[in-house]
Write a sequence for this structure.
């Protein structure tokens, strides 16, 4: 009996010793890992997404691709991301990377603007980059990267004039009270008028709708798109998250051409996006790396207007159409071509 007790005691002692040894090794490794980013020679960059996740076929996915490419190119030593599950976690997710000593923290989407600004104040040693976010008050460690919605809308309007057979094109947008939505759809109107003033352009905003359904009113988008098609529009442009996607679904169902924005809508919607001919959105993958180069060189520009990219055109279009689109976007970016969209409502 005594022998059994001794063996049991020895077993417990060995178990306890190896357990605590393992725990100490794990803790030491964790501490070393978490402290790497505090070392001057280690450059760490991270991304915190909104609740659409990192596979949104848009800014989140492109930004993460940019971070991964930056690591491959030697611009960063360590890159990570957190895909936010709940909006209430935004600030906590951003702070996680700041607490780990990350040099550069990207946040994507307008919903994270307040959390980004607050963390910039709390963690002055990290640089924060708000993608698709604007900040009224500057900070020495805060960068705003926006994309020119008016130019994207303008380019969509020009494309629409090349697609229409009925001579009627339309745009479906979230409320005009949101500046980006106004710029998208008024840019579209301007693009149509610039390319062919004889084409009729219809623009509808989701006004007086339920505020709780902002950017997620797919039913309204679908109904509005269907109504515009019934009125003769054979090309639909749409902007405004899921609200806009409702109109794109209507275009696919009624077999008319659609032009997407904000992300590669054809891939995002799958079969429901088969009518999407082209999508225009911000080149986040490129901008992430450009910002990283500047920050590593000691430059922090408060405001940056990013480049525009477009998804692959429908195979039925001739190759020169893509070239024409690239030339158009270059002219808009350089200022050679002025959109002439004002903020006046």
């Amino acid at each position: 009996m005594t022998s059994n007790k001794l063996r049991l005691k020895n077993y417990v002692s060995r178990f306890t010793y190896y357990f605590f040894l393992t725990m100490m090794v794990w803790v030491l490794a964790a501490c070393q890992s978490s402290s790497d980013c505090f070392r001057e020679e280690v450059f760490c960059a991270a991304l915190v997404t909104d609740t659409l996740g990192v596979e949104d076929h848009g800014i989140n996915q492109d930004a993460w691709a940019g971070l991964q490419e930056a690591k491959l190119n030697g611009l960063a030593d360590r890159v990570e991301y957190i895909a936010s599950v709940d909006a209430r976690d935004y600030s906590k997710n951003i702070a996680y990377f700041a607490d780990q000593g990350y040099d550069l923290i990207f946040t994507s989407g307008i919903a994270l603007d307040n959390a980004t600004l607050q963390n910039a104040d709390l963690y002055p040693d990290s640089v924060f980059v708000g993608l698709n976010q604007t900040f009224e008050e500057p900070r020495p460690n805060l960068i705003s990267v926006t994309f020119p919605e008016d130019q994207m809308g303008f380019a969509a309007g020009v494309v629409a004039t090349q697609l229409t057979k009925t001579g009627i094109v339309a745009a479906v947008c979230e409320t005009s009270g949101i500046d980006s939505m106004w710029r998208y759809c008024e840019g579209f109107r301007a693009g149509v008028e610039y390319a062919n003033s004889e084409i009729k352009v219809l623009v509808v905003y989701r006004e007086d709708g339920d505020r709780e359904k902002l950017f997620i009113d797919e039913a309204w988008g679908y109904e509005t798109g269907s109504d515009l098609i019934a009125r003769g529009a054979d090309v639909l442009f749409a902007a405004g998250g899921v609200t806009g996607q409702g109109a794109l679904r209507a275009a696919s169902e009624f077999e008319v051409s659609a032009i997407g924005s904000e992300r590669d809508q054809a891939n995002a919607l799958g079969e429901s996006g088969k009518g999407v001919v082209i999508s225009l959105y911000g080149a986040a993958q490129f901008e992430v790396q450009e910002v990283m180069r500047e920050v590593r060189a000691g430059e922090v520009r408060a405001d940056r207007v990013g480049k525009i990219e477009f998804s692959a055109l429908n195979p039925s279009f001739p190759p020169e159409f893509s070239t024409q689109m690239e030339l158009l976007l270059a002219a808009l970016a350089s200022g050679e071509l002025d959109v002439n969209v004002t903020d006046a409502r």
Summary: Residues 149-282+315-334 form a domain with the Rossmann fold fold (CATH 3.40.50.2300). Confidence is low (pLDDT under 50) at residues 4-12, 15-34. The CA atoms of residues 260 and 327 lie 19 Å apart. The longest strand covers residues 276-282.
